[in-house]
Amino acid sequence: MYSCEVIIGQTATGKTRRALSRAMQTGADVITIDSRQVYTHLNIVTGKDTGDAPFTDIAEISNSGHRLNIGHYLLNGVRVWGYDIVDPHVHFSSHDFRIYFQYIMENTINKDTVPIVVGGTYLYVKHLIYGLDSTTASNWKLRTSLKNASLGKLQQMLQTVDSQTFVSLNDSDRKNPHRLIRKIEIAQFQLKKHPGMVGMQSSLNTAPLIQPTSIIALAHASTKTLEQAITTRVDERLKNGAVQETRWLLEHGYTYIDPGLQALGYLPLISYIEGHQTLEEARTLWITSEVQYARRQLTFMKKEQTSIIKVGSSPYDDASF
């Protein structure tokens, strides 16, 4: 496992600035973990905040038929990794991020210091610290076909292909469509690979990759400060060209069905550009979705055995998570 400092938190709590400040003191690299910022071209809406800093290409590796860009930005003298890994057309999962993470830890990260992992998407952080349930890669064709399936149908499918796993799930997981689809995905893969060995995947694990030397968790002091911070952030990104960026993406062949454009903010802006709603309506939807996401982040954070630091009414300007 790799020793890392870990900073997690809600949207707009100052995680990235805190990580950069710490890295400037120690000389460490920073690795951002954000499922939206891994995509190229998605800059303003996702809040990469890299300014005019150039992206330095280091290498390119192949994974599941698509390429992963290995490179970094230099921000305040700190090498920042985790941005611009894949094209918005490409599906990208926590499994893919683990492959990326292992590569940079082995080949590019400064080994004389302890890197700082900041973010990001909680599922990615979880799978780095605790490992994966299975090495099974994502089956996007299956996920798309089950996207609109009812909860009852998903439960029935999992019971059919792997009753042992279904019985082992807690009540929350049994009511979580994403969790059920992933379990079905793993079970079908194992049945194809080892016919008749139902439940085999229950014993499969991928090892944790991170041994945290410390974990800092940041949250807003109140719902009011959360909503204020997100509203300010959305308005700043609209002012900085979020609509123009979205229009550019559409003009260059990207569409609302591309995985990258599922990132919060793009769908309401696309709807506005296509004339289906006003800009104010799109703004409201964007803010609402960000607030809802931040609330889910807090729920995840509370599951960790670590103290949560409350951020006041003037949080740092932060880009990730």
UniProtKB/TrEMBL annotation:
<keyword id="KW-0819">tRNA processing</keyword>
<dbReference type="Pfam" id="PF01745">
    <property type="entry name" value="IPT"/>
</dbReference>
<keyword id="KW-0808">Transferase</keyword>
<dbReference type="InterPro" id="IPR027417">
    <property type="entry name" value="P-loop_NTPase"/>
</dbReference>
<dbReference type="GO" id="GO:0006400">
    <property type="term" value="P:tRNA modification"/>
</dbReference>
<keyword id="KW-0067">ATP-binding</keyword>
<dbReference type="InterPro" id="IPR018022">
    <property type="entry name" value="IPT"/>
</dbReference>
<feature type="site" description="Interaction with substrate tRNA">
    <location>
        <position position="143"/>
    </location>
</feature>
<keyword id="KW-0547">Nucleotide-binding</keyword>
<feature type="binding site">
    <location>
        <begin position="9"/>
        <end position="16"/>
    </location>
    <ligand>
        <name>ATP</name>
    </ligand>
</feature>
<comment type="similarity">
    <text>Belongs to the IPP transferase family.</text>
</comment>
<feature type="site" description="Interaction with substrate tRNA">
    <location>
        <position position="121"/>
    </location>
</feature>
<feature type="binding site">
    <location>
        <begin position="11"/>
        <end position="16"/>
    </location>
    <ligand>
        <name>substrate</name>
    </ligand>
</feature>
<feature type="region of interest" description="Interaction with substrate tRNA">
    <location>
        <begin position="34"/>
        <end position="37"/>
    </location>
</feature>
<comment type="function">
    <text>Catalyzes the transfer of a dimethylallyl group onto the adenine at position 37 in tRNAs that read codons beginning with uridine, leading to the formation of N6-(dimethylallyl)adenosine (i(6)A).</text>
</comment>
<comment type="subunit">
    <text>Monomer.</text>
</comment>
<dbReference type="GO" id="GO:0005524">
    <property type="term" value="F:ATP binding"/>
</dbReference>
<dbReference type="Pfam" id="PF01715">
    <property type="entry name" value="IPPT"/>
</dbReference>
<dbReference type="GO" id="GO:0052381">
    <property type="term" value="F:tRNA dimethylallyltransferase activity"/>
</dbReference>
<protein>
    <recommendedName>
        <fullName>tRNA dimethylallyltransferase</fullName>
        <ecNumber>2.5.1.75</ecNumber>
    </recommendedName>
</protein>
<dbReference type="InterPro" id="IPR039657">
    <property type="entry name" value="Dimethylallyltransferase"/>
</dbReference>
<keyword id="KW-0460">Magnesium</keyword>
